Amino acid sequence: MSQFMVEFELPNPFPEKLIIKIPAQRMMVNQLLEDGKIQSYALSMERDRLWCVVNADDELEVMRIIGEFPLIEYMHPTITELMFNNAVVMKVPAFSLN
Predict the structure, then answer these.
(1) Is 98 a residue whose pLDDT tops 90?
(2) How high does pLDDT run on average in the chain?
(3) Which end of the chain has the least Cβ crowding within 10 Å, N or C?
(4) Are 47 and 93 in contact (CB under 8 A)?
(5) What are phi and psi of 83, to 5 degrees?
């Protein structure tokens, strides 16, 4: 499995129809994060660019994943396959029965 950086250009300002779909987008992104299909999701302060790291076998699978985004009709993606993506691994402390 490979990792892909997807950079999206977003309209500025947001159209009303886009704003209405934001809760559905967040729900889908949270599910994809939980499923391990997306590793990260970030929005610029100006709200005109969005980035996500997608775990997929190939660019076609990335297109399938992002094609399901509720906001995809407002997003212009650029997909780049990554050689590596270093990230901090969050560790949960071991549970003790003592």
Answers:
(1) no
(2) 93
(3) C
(4) no
(5) -75, -45
- Tokens 């691994």 label which residue? 89
Confidence of residue 41 (pLDDT cuts 50, 70, 90): very high
Average pLDDT of span 7-36 = 96
Whole-model pTM? Answer: 0.85
Q: Rounded to the nearest 5°, which phi and psi values hold at 82?
A: -95, 140
User: Could you give the CA distance from residue 15 to residue 2 in angstroms, rounded to a whole number?
Assistant: 34
Mean pLDDT of 15-41: 96
95 conformational bin, left if phi > 0, alpha if psi -120 to 50, beta if neither = beta
Torsion angles phi and psi, residue 7, rounded to 5: -110, 130
Q: What string of DSSP letters covers the chain?
A: -EEEEEEEE--SSPPHHHHHHHHHHHHHHHHHHHHTSEEEEEE-TTSSEEEEEEEESSHHHHHHHHHT-TTGGG-EEEEEEES----PPP-PPPP---
Contact criterion met (CB below 8 Å) for 54 and 6: yes
